[in-house]
Amino acid sequence: MPSVVPTLDFGSMTQAIQFLMEIDKLKSVQRRTKVLGRQRQENSAEHSWHFAIAALSLAPYAGENVDIQRVIQMALLHDIVEIDAGDVMVYDLAARAAIHDQEIAAAKRLFGLLPEPQREYFTALWQEYEDGESADARFAQVLDRSMPILMNLHNEGQSWVENDIRLEQVLARNTMIADTQPELWKHLLQHLQDAQRKGWLK
Amino acid sequence: MPSVVPTLDFGSMTQAIQFLMEIDKLKSVQRRTKVLGRQRQENSAEHSWHFAIAALSLAPYAGENVDIQRVIQMALLHDIVEIDAGDVMVYDLAARAAIHDQEIAAAKRLFGLLPEPQREYFTALWQEYEDGESADARFAQVLDRSMPILMNLHNEGQSWVENDIRLEQVLARNTMIADTQPELWKHLLQHLQDAQRKGWLK
Q1: Domains parsed from chain A with CATH numbers
Q2: Does the CB of A182 have a partner CB in chain B at under 8 Å?
Q3: Cβ-based contacts of B13 with chain A (< 8 Å)
Q4: Most CB within 10 Å of its CB: which of A71, B9, B44, B83?
Q5: Which stretches are transmembrane (chains A, B) (predicted)?
Q6: pLDDT tens by residue, B61-105
Q7: Which residues on neighbouring strands pair with residue A34, listed in sequence order?
Q8: Distance CA B202, CA B199 (A)
Q9: Contact state of B21 with A77 under an 8 Å Cβ cutoff
Q10: Percentage of chain A surpassing pLDDT 90?
Q11: Do A53 and B153 touch (CB under 8 A)?
């Protein structure tokens, strides 16, 4: 189990500040996606920021039953378990299944650094996001899935090309975007087909 | 003026997605602060994530008149102007004054990529944060100021040492933390004095 960053006494705020210092490690978790321009891989902390601001920017399209503030909070939290469990690409189905127990343990350790009521609140929000059943979690998952697709469409298909991804994999793994946001999917589908014609997807 | 990332047609979502692709550049704006462990400088996108999740983690200390959702939104937005204007350390008073007009122009260009009502909403929220007068903006500024102090306290004073910062500069520039969050300041002050004894601050 990774070591916890030592922290200082901040009275009743000590645990929350210890949590904040520990999750600095998310800035060092590398994703397959690169920043636009392809100078380097993006990390899961900056991806979480990008996802959260996507929620705020696309709020008018979320639907009336979505609480965009909870979606933003899910974005901020959703990848923290990767500090212990690592990032696994959405198309690597075997690795994603294998990592599930590690993510549960990671949530317990990392959110467990917080005092109550935040410990329970953060854990429940992360679990709701993972389950993907509530309207808030579904919109959050649409954004989390859409961000790397949008990045690749503006980045010459970078992570698709580097990982030999096929168009049919992208279509099969993202049916939930089509179900939840048909208008967004209509445009994504057209651009994905164009990407295949350009050789960015097999 | 920096070029805008070319974007694709997404129907009524086109402008919001163009904005999201353009602000990917915040991931390449370097701060003086390094990630814990000091392998590299942190960038303003991952700092914005860290600040936003600090707001969520420290929400119980915000005070009853603070809307933590608006603080989180300020965190997500507050540094976007740095894409055009660059990051200036809080202790570089001359540079901070000089950059003000550039930040106004940057807000106009970058938030101007969005359609209404987001354009006006993002601009007004950024301006409120900059003005630092509302309770939400004040709590947001406390967190934005506290994060690099907390990072330095857990990172052997890295950006203070590298920039020859004196304890009296940190005290003079952060009186607003003392005014707004006296309990947090009490602990920070003690740790800052310890940091000077260790030679991390002059």
Answers
A1: 12-197 (1.10.3210.10)
A2: no
A3: 58, 61, 183-184, 187
A4: A71
A5: none
A6: 999 999 999 999 999 999 999 999 998 888 888 888 889 999 999
A7: A41
A8: 6
A9: no
A10: 90
A11: no
User: Do the Cβ atoms of B71 and B139 come closer than 8 Å?
Assistant: yes
Q: How far is B191 from chain A (nearest CA, A)?
A: 8
> Can you tell me the ipTM of this complex?
0.96
Place of tokens 């014609």: A197
Q: Are B63 and B75 in contact (CB under 8 A)?
A: no
Q: Is B124 on the interface with A (CB under 8 A)?
A: no
Give residue A132's Cα distance to chain centre.
12
Three-state secondary structure call for residue A15:
helix
* Rounded distance between C-alpha atoms, residue B39 and residue B48, angstroms: 19
Please, are residues B177 and B185 in contact by the beta-carbon 8 Å criterion? yes
User: So what's the pLDDT on residue B22?
Assistant: 97
Cα B117 from chain centre: 24
* Residue B6 to residue A109: CA distance in whole angstroms: 42
Q: Which residues of A touch B6 (CB under 8 A)?
A: 154
User: Which residue is it, tokens 């601001």?
Assistant: A53
* A93 φ/ψ sector (left φ>0, alpha ψ -120 to 50, else beta): alpha
**Cα-based angle A152, A158, A163 (whole degrees, multiple of 5):** 115
What token pair was written down for A29?
């978790």
